[in-house]
Design brief:
five-stranded mixed β-sheet, single chain, about 45% strand, about 10% helix, 14 strands
Amino acid sequence: MKKIIAAALCLALSMLLTSCGKESVSESSEVSKPDSVIKWFDCLNGDEMVWDGVREYTLDEFSGVTFRWHPEQLEAVTDRETVPLYNGMPIWSVYFYDLTGDGNPELCSTLSLGSGMIDNRIMIYDYAGGASYELSDRGNFDYVLNMQEDSLVVEKRVYMQDELIESGELLFLNDTIQIKAE
């Protein structure tokens, strides 16, 4: 009887210890279709924030690359290196969408930044082109992405308030992030 109790305690302890580690979530690969948005996750719109975890995602357009999210950083991982792409405090969402028209999807995110004074902004990362673009107006406005039907929509709000100033489809023109007027 003592051996059974000891074995049960060891099993319970090992289960407890293995569950204390970081959670890792791997999503499946998808091929993006022209003019379609792929939602990886959006913690501001229903997905659970995994504060001590990691999420990973692969796309056929970027063979050999795994995109890895930590709450504070997004990185591209290959068999040779890990490249930090951008930071947030945290990165709330990541969508994939071809904004530049080059046939490869860009990473589109809502993230928070700041210490003491925190704002929400939008980050677009063109992995194929190695460039990033930001939509922010610190202290004046907050910007948040969400998906409506098959489009990425930007919501512009008064800083730290619920008052919606402008809303429209996410556009990328002349190397700048813009909001399509409705």
